[in-house]
Amino acid sequence: MAKGHLNFYCWMKTKNTYQKLFSPQSIAIVGASNKKGKIGTIIAENISKLGYKGKTYLINPAYKFLGFKRCYPSLSAVKKEIDVAIICVPAKFVLGVVKEGMQNVKNFVIISAGFSEIGAEGAKREQELIALAKKNNLNILGPNCLGFINPIVNLNASFAAGMPKAGNVAFVSQSGALIVGLLDKAKEEHMGFSNVISIGNQMQVDEADILEYLAEDKETKVIGMYLEGIKDGSRFLKVAKKVSQKKPIVILKAGKTEQAQKAISSHTGALAGSDEIVDVAFKSAGIIRADNLDDFFALLGLISFTDAPKNGQMAVITNAGGAGVLATDAFKNKEIALMEFSQKAKENFAKQLPSESSVHNPIDLLGDAGADRYQNILEMLKKENPGSTICILTPQQQTPVEEIAKIITSVKEKNKMSLAAVFIGGERIKNGVLHLKQNNIPNFSNPESCVRALDQYYRWSIFANEKTDEQKYAANADCKKIVSNIIKNAREQKRGALSFSEAANVMLEYGIDSGSFWIVSADGEKPEIKEFPVVAKIDSDKVLHKSDKQGVILNIKNSGELEEALKALGQNFPGEKVLVQPMQQKQVEIILGIKKDDIFGPVIVYGLGGIYTEIFHMADFLLPPMSEAEIKKQVLSGKIRFLFQGARGQKAYDAEEFSKIIKGIMDFALENSDIDGFDINPLFIYNDGRKASAVDIKIII
Prior knowledge:
The chain folds into five domains: 17-159, 3-Layer(aba) Sandwich (Rossmann fold), CATH 3.40.50.720; 164-305, Succinyl-CoA synthetase domains (Rossmann fold, 3-Layer(aba) Sandwich); 308-465, Rossmann fold, CATH 3.40.50.261; 516-583, ATP-grasp fold, A domain (Dna Ligase, domain 1); 588-700, D-amino Acid Aminotransferase, Chain A, domain 1, CATH 3.30.470.20. It is flat. It contains 22 helices and 29 strands. Residues 1-13 and 266-273 have low confidence and may be disordered. The strands form five sheets. The chain has a seven-stranded mixed sheet with strand order 3-4-2-1-5-6-7, with helices on both faces. A seven-stranded mixed sheet has the order 9-8-11-10-12-13-14, sandwiched between helices. Strands 24, 25, 26, 27, 28 and 29 form a six-stranded antiparallel sheet that branches. By secondary structure, it is of the alpha/beta class.
């Protein structure tokens, strides 16, 4: 089968499989009960009483009937194919239930807790389930999950109460309790759902699988996810990047602190990676990251109710000058900006407003503004073609809040404008805000939240509209063989790191130069060195931090001083080699490294070297693979971009050269994933025509 046809077949298989899981025609509840408070009772009642039209089977050997409905002793006793089985029995019985029922059921939702989240005993249960699922081509959601809800078909296959409003938001969560809270909050926000899915321990069906399914779900406009850990970082990002080209993904990711990461481990058994790396990873995949629950709700509501801004130029109208000032401040460091109105537009605005009004952006309608002023200016703004318009209101004595809310709604419907509201207040704005939400206009409690959400939505739209090719890395076989032999030789000698000469030769294979150098062995001849000044330093896998151990002697001016330096180093570090290099003039020191992230694999770190690394933390992260063009784009927008832009009248450093060096390190990282550590500190870069030089290289094996 051709590769293209194979990919299509796999996609169709995945789509059809999960269609049966989340939109089943038949469903079984294993552990169904009539005892009050039992999860089996709650799930059976949810499925039977909230409008599900499919076939339902109750499974429990303790009953022949539950109510007036037949109860089967086992899944196999049904004698019919069942699309999905919901299992809510104690953990120790789950494996047996799946084994017994897998002949006529291929999709299972395991509500039961008592798996990897409780430690070694539970993890063993999970491994047994995974092995069974792989061998028999089963799909298992959970364990330790709430279940799922599909409001489109009135199916609540969970133990959460009620049926959410049907809509276009899909919510996926590792926390069942958070689902319950969000659904309750969503009622106030008039937010509707296409899917609500609890993934629990994501033992088999994980967040990437769910993303692939929801990408093709016609009812879903936006995917919201609460994640504590990510099962397979590389696959997740690959899938998320493709899905983000179609629809927005908003993620609330827990685990920003060390304490939170410990809590996650006990909660779901998941690994949480470095939060800064998570930011970089999400950005690379076009994911919108919410900072907190309020932001999460705000973003989901905005995207659910309206389309992304058509462009980055925003218009703001307000009846409160102070709120307008806060809105202006909120645009600082954003991709979106306040649009500049033409002189003609300002003159036209002025004709509709009192002379005291401001016709600049934000447009101040003044505190006595009625619905007519909002309507007139909104109608006129349509001609200015803003990417989106923010309507700010405070409930002053004469403000007809509900009437203005109705005008905003009607103008949006008539002109198909992108609108967001910021109604600031409490009881007096309550009915107006309700009208907005009932008519799919997002309302924010403050200008800052509104501007931030619009900015994130707009940035996603830029990502979705960019033509980005998937980066496919092809290893250089010859290079890989040479480097593998160098590392293999060092390991056979039971060394913990490569010598500088070995590391320099490795880096040369990836296009990174270390300049000239000489190696002086403990019992070897001294090389003839005519270039001075030089630096002499210990070259040993036992002394990685040379400066801390007085293993470096700088500014050696002649042969006599070199002889003394070699003698001193030989006495302090008997039997070790000494590296001699030309004393290079410093201009800018850069640090480059490879960090192994638990979730996303190798991550490239680069930034200002020397004392600046510790003081200013001016470092950025990149996730391979990337093209040189992509690397350059990130470098020119990163924390040390000023070096390559010619800041303060200085000549710019060579971004092309620097990007090639990073690309070389990326290739090295991908081809040598088994090394324990790597850094170049410092890499000297110049803006006077000299080539960059890796002065010190550590490759820990």
